[in-house]
Amino acid sequence: RNVSCVIGGVESEPVELVSSSEVLCVTPAGSVGRVSVGVSVGGRSADSLTTVEFEYVADASVIAVEPSTGPVHGGGVVTVRGENLDPVAECVFGGVGTAAEVVSSKEVLCTVPGSSVSGTVSVDVVGAGQAVVGVIGGEYEYVEAVHVTGLKPSYGPDVGGNIVQLIGGEYPPGSIAACMFGSKAASRGRRISASVVECVSPAHASG
């Protein structure tokens, strides 16, 4: 039988008839808001399914990822900034998804997944039950982990604000995006030498 979907009054093709009770449709372009869903069988007028609706939402877009660099083992929390991020359920780093915590329509928090290789990947956002949506300038760079052998000073107030030297090596020029204190990203790291980087400690609970 010739079956098609009618979404918001627009016939949708192609269609895959999965079974007598299930059909797959591709949504046509639409305006933000809810629309009714119907089916057309054998060219007959669409039979409206008044209890079923589809909601079009504004395209989400990624403008910036902060910090935009981190170690290949992942685990850090990044802030993804953009537009229309309210429906976002996941951030996708180079094809690997991770749950998103929505702060506002312009900001979400995501834990960076690990990567088997270093390099730059795109950062996409995914709405609940949706395909990947718009991306503008969303990138994250994985770098090889840099080992820290000492801190100076190694303690400070829980309100943060201390300048801390991270001693280790080798710190390649331009490779330090931020220092991680636990799961929190501090201010951008400043490379003093091949073995010393300075960061400002963030606020954190005692311990």
TrEMBL record:
GO terms for molecular function: semaphorin receptor activity. CDD domains: IPT_PCSR. It comes from the Eukaryota. Signal peptide: none annotated. InterPro entries: Ig-like_fold, Ig_E-set, IPT_dom, Plexin. Residues 59-143 form the IPT/TIG domain. Pfam families: TIG. Transmembrane segments: none annotated. This is IPT/TIG domain-containing protein. It comes from Hemiselmis tepida.
